[in-house]
Amino acid sequence: DAKSRGRSGYQFHNAEQSARARERVRLDGDLRRAIERNELELHYQPKVRVSDGGVVGAEALLRWRRGGGALVPPDRFIPVAEDTGLIVPIGEWVLRTACETAVAWNAHQPPGAAALKIAVNLSPRQFWSPHFVGMVRAVLHDSGCRPEWIELEMTESLLIDSRGQVAAILAELRQLGFTLAIDDFGTGYSALGYLTRFPITTLKIDRSFVNEVATQPARAGIVRAVVGMGHSLGLELVAEGVEDADQAAALRQMGCHLAQGWLYGRPVPRAEFERLQAAVLGPSVRGGNVAGEAR
Ligand code: C2E
Ligand code: MG
Ligand code: MG
Ligand code: MG
User: How far apart are CA 26 and CA 37, in angstroms?
Assistant: First the structure.
C-alpha cells in the first residue's frame, strides 16, 4: 500500500543520501591532504590563433591524482571544495603554480616575441575570500610573474552576484594588469550590461555553441552574433571546445580570434606541453631543463 511504499521509498532515499554524505566526507578528507601530498596537478591546453593556428598560451586545468592513483577530473571535486571552502587554498596553489610556469615559459622569449599567456579559472568562493586580491599580489611578488602573462577566467554567475564589491575587485585586478575573461559565455544569465560595467577583456564562447557551429545554422547564428558583439565592444573572442576543421573554418570566417580544443591539443602535464610546444617556448624550456642549459 501507499504507506509502506512511502516508507520504503523514504528509507531507500535515506540510505542513498547517507552513502553519498559519507563519500563526500571521505572526498573532503582526502582532498584536505592532497596539497601537502603533492597530489594536485595542473594540465595545460594550448590556446591558438584561429587565423594560423599559432600558439599564444594555454589554459591551466586542475587534476587530482587521488592517492597516487587515477586522475580525478575537476567536475568531480571542485564543487565539494567550493562547498567546504577548500577551494581557497587549492585556488591559491593553482595560481601560484600557473605563475611559476608563466615565468619559466616567458623567461627567455626572444626580444619582440609576444608573451605566452596562461589562463587560470577562478571560483566564486575564492573570489569572495577575505584576502583574495592580497593573495594575488603576494603570488605575483613571490613568483616574479607579470600580470600580463595571466588571464583570469570567471563565469557569469560570479559577475551578477548582488554584492556591490564585484566592480571594485575586478577594477583592482584589471589595474594590476591581468586580463579578465568570461568563461562558458552564453550559458549564464546573459545580463549583458555587465560587459560595459566591468573591465572585461575576453569572452570564451561556450563549447555547446562551438560544437555545432558548422552543422547547426541557429547555433552558428548565435556564435556569429557573439563574435560581432565582441568586435564592437573591443573584446577578445575565444572559442572553447573546437574539435574539427569545419568548426575552425566557420570560426575563422566569422572573425573569432582565438580557439582551444581537441583539434589543437588536449590538456596535458607541463612537461608534455613543453615537449609538444618546444618550437614556441623560450630556450630555457626548449632545451629541456635549466640545469642542462647552465652547463
Ligand atoms: P572550463 O574552464 O570551461 O574548461 C574547459 C573544459 O573543456 C576542460 O574540462 C577541458 O578539458 C574541456 N575541453 C577542452 N577542449 C575540449 C574539446 O575539444 N572537447 C571537449 N569535449 N572538451 C574540451 P576539465 O579540464 O574537465 O575542466 C572542467 C571545468 O572545471 C572547467 O571548465 C572549470 O570550470 C573547472 N576547473 C578546472 N580547473 C579549475 C581550477 O583550477 N579552478 C577552478 N575554480 N575551476 C577549475
Ligand atoms: Mg576555463
Ligand atoms: Mg569554459
Ligand atoms: Mg566550465
Answer: 16
Q: What is the ipTM of this complex?
A: 0.98
Cα of 275 vs centre of ligand 2, distance in Å, is 23
Give yes or no for a contact between 219 and 213, defined as CB atoms under 8 angstroms apart. Answer: yes
Among 44, 121, 127, 155, which is best to mutate for testing ligand 1, by the most ligand atoms less than 8 A from CB?
A: 121
Residue 6: how many other CB atoms lie within 10 Å: 10
- The pLDDT averaged over each successive group of 10 residues in the chain (295 residues) is 52 80 89 93 98 96 94 94 95 98 90 91 95 98 98 91 86 98 88 88 97 95 96 97 98 98 98 92 62 36
Phi, psi (deg, nearest 5) at residue 58? -155, 160
The grid coordinates listed for 271 are 612537461
Q: How far is the CA of 121 from the centre of ligand 4 (A)?
A: 9
Note whether 236 and 258 are within 8 A (CB): yes
pTM exceeds cut of 0.80: yes
